Amino acid sequence: MYTSVHTDRRDFIKKMAVLSAMTAAAGMFPGIVFAEEQERGIPADANLDWKKAPCRFCGVGCSVLIGTENGKAIAVKGDPKSPVNKGLCCVKGYHSILALYGKDRLTKPLVKKNGKYVETSMKEALDLVASKMQKTIKDHGKDAVSIYGSGQWTIPDGYVASKLFKGCIGTNNVEANARLCMATAVTGFLTSFGLDEPMGCYEDIDYADTFVLWGNNMAEMHPVLFSRLLDQRQKRGVKIIDFATRTTRTSMAADKSILFNPQSDLAVGNAICYEIINNGWMNKTFVEEHCNFSKGLTKMGYGLEDNYKFADKPETIDFEDYKTFLEDYTPEKASKISGVSVKDIKYLAAHFGDPNTKVMSFWCMGPNQHSRGTWMNNIIYNIHLLTGKISSPGNSPFSLTGQPSACGTVREVGTLTHKLPHGVVMNKEHRELAAKIWDVPVENIDPKPTYHTVEMFRALDRGDIRFMWIQVTNPMVTMPKLKRYRDGAKKEGRFIVVSDIYPTPTTDIADVILPSAMWIEREGMYGNSERRTQYFEQMVEPPGEAMSDTMQLLEVAKRMGFEKQFYYKDETHIEEIYTEYRKHHEGKKHNMAPLEVLKAQSGAMWPYVDGKSTQWRFNAKYDPACTNGKDFHFYGKKDGKAVIWQRPYEPAAEEPDAEYPYWLGTGRVVEHWHTGSMTRRIPVLHQAMPHAYVELNPGDAKRLQIRTGDMVKLTTRRGEITLPASVNERAVPAPMQVFVPFFDEKMLINEITLDSFCPISKEPDYKKCAVNIEKA
Amino acid sequence: MPIKSYLVHPQEGKKMHLANVLSEIEQCEVLPAENKEVLILVTETYSKQEEEVLKEKLDSINEVKLMALVSGFDTPKK
Ligand code: SF4
Predict the structure, then answer these.
(1) Which member of B36, B44, B71 has the closest CB to residue A29?
(2) pLDDT for the residue numbered A640
């Protein structure tokens, strides 16, 4: 429980220390009670009005209850009625409301004049944004304007952005930061099943016997969900296997930790498939009834050059071809590539192979931010398909999301260059449906996708894009090989609008800064990792002239002459937008729950059919969209069958060599939300993790005579950065590997990362490049 | 002036005994969970050296199964 009452600084720090421990304990022991302490924070005479909202931060999508008093949010607790978190919260969730009240909230629009930011009115700022966009279109064409949004956009934000840019202006220059985290999950789902998002749900946790975590530090990144795993272990003795490149809090809590060389998960995954087939563990009936086999192109490159293009050419193969291909991945051969012992490969395979063991796989950024990420996603599905361990309670390949609405807004609304709310721009019928609902001529919607995120920033650098509107995201911290994209954005003749709640390195490159209303200062919805859409009402007023991103977009759209399409009334616009949006998804495969339902309960899972959420898609017992008369129906593919893909191991774009002998991987920490622009303004979180660091293997540190706190210089082909060392602290990288978190804008690790990406998903590989380290 | 918090996992059945042992140490404040076998320990020391001595003392307590550091703060002296 958080409250804002504190006095003496040292007492305050002690209290924070207790709070941190309490939240860590809550993560490890679901339902834990520290009775006195939990009640101590709430003022005795408090008369709080508690309302529910999905948490502002991660993709777990916990439901929280927010206590407000006199127009201010002052307390947070987990919602015991929520099936997601059952009353729990992590350290970020408990402190989330403090992010509303940082001292330097942006409250007034700022316009850059002669190199200086000048305060202006919202009306004037929005006039300027609209006129600049119109002039850019007139001078350079419609594809010279773009919008870059976020998996933290609410569903209405993303929906009106897509409608304005794709439907009204007629450009597919719509991207979102989920390209940097979830695009690979999408292409994984589409290639294997023809439809995006997990088939199962969090309730799988209550049925699975074994959990395999593929390169996923769940204890820090999805803490509440991880606590549900630990709870099941206490109750039922389930097994947790951590398969990763570094030893983390997750590895320490797991029953078994297996380390692999970066990129070699591809080889180990294939070796598991080899074992399943060669030990007779394959579920033959399931595979024959419900699966096809395919292969695609190989040696695709890594997207390092401008205007890189790749389109896969799938080719049908048969089971025998696939079996022959797997001969290259015997456990012995995969062991050589991966450094994982033959015994451990067989151990992993045996869990999947045992017909009496229900297995749930979890993964997130490891397989996604991976230069062969789509392949890695496919391989995990292959394992589950070969054993028939899919789409049924406890048997579940589950791709987790990082952001609160990466699924809800980016994947479902479709705020990526090739996407529409239903389907893709390349498909005539999909364009026709969108045009009809949007009330625009179908010719407005361009059938050709334009730029994915990395290429969009390259286009800005080249001058092909001249205007960019960035909302709820901080690309000047998160783009790989950052310097190029920052220099590009600052070039003459570019106009950048940034909507945010605090100053960031991204507002630093803006020509116009628009102050946004945050989370419960407006109304909206998020969609979490398990297809659950959750609604939140406005609970407090935004500060100053801050305005929701939805409203900013509506105001600009109307100024550009699209009043007819943006007809919504101020008081009811969120409801009207959501009702219109639902039309895109009508039908048994994706129907969204009506708003009344979302208001009444802790969200609902799509497909929402006949008043019910669908928990397990593609399984005829649970999913009304199955129509083939069989137990399973993978209706995303025309023939109703899922695809088992032949995907080889290939090396990363840049691997350690004599000059740069270490691997560099980047990632997150539990205290901070992504780039830290909110959580670094929450004292307890900032104090607990005040700055970035470089984690070293203790053996490497000893050889280099580096101790915790010593400054270490990291050099890659992109540049250098100096950071304090962390040895044997929170996590331990394998020998010849280093890890750096990216939340710290004062120590921008992305200055030196590489902008290689998965050729299919175009998602950058933040986990692998070559680096040299030395004591500074 | 380091302030640190730990989750302390006691040996089986020793939670309350451990809580008593820890609360007798001057630099320690203890908060046992009501319904689970774990305690929160907050330590407050005046220097890094004092902290190291304390840590050694804590490590030698038999009733402690595992101590996991959760947060550490270093505050300026008052
Ligand atoms: S686990 Fe994620 S959604 Fe849940 S409280 Fe923590 S940050 Fe929020």
Answers:
(1) B36
(2) 98
B42 interaction partners in chain A (CB closer than 8 Å): 14, 17-18, 21
pLDDT at A520: 97
The CATH number of the structural domain formed by A201-296+314-404+640-646 is: 3.40.228.10
State the ipTM, two decimals: 0.90
User: Which ligand 1 atom sits nearest the alpha carbon of residue A93?
Assistant: 5
DSSP state of A517: P
- CATH T-level assignment (fold) for domain A662-775: Barwin-like endoglucanases (2.40.40)
Return d(Cα A2, Cα A445) in angstroms, integer: 48
pTM of structure: 0.88
Distance from CA of A13 to the nearest CA of B (A): 7
Element holding A322 (H helix, E strand): helix A319-325
**Of A176-180, A237-241, A250-254, A749-753, the least confident:** A250-254
Residues of B in contact with A14 (CB under 8 A): 3, 29, 42, 44
From the list A55, A62, A181, A407, the catalytic residue is A181
In sequence order, what are the residues at sequence separation of 6 or more whose Cβ sits closer than 8 angstroms to the Cβ of residue A675? A474, A477, A478, A504, A742, A743, A745
Helix axes A342-353, A265-278, angle to 10 degrees: 60
Among 3.40.50.740, 3.30.70.20, 3.30.450.40, 3.20.20.140, name the CATH number for the domain at A114-176+407-567. 3.40.50.740
Choose the catalytic residue: A58, A89, A168, A182: A182
Q: Please judge whether A10 and B78 are an interchain contact, meaning their C-beta atoms are less than 8 angstroms apart.
A: yes
Q: For residue A34, give the chain B residue with the closest CA.
A: B33
Tokens linked to A287 = 């595979």
Q: How far is the C-alpha of A371 from the C-alpha of A300, rounded, in Å?
A: 10
pLDDT-derived band at A3 (thresholds 50, 70, 90) equals very low
Domain that residue B8 falls in: 1-37+58-78
pLDDT tens digits for A19-58?
Answer: 777 767 765 665 666 655 444 455 555 678 899 999 999 9
For A125-137, the pLDDT digits (tens) are: 999 999 999 999 9
Closest A-chain CA to B70: A21
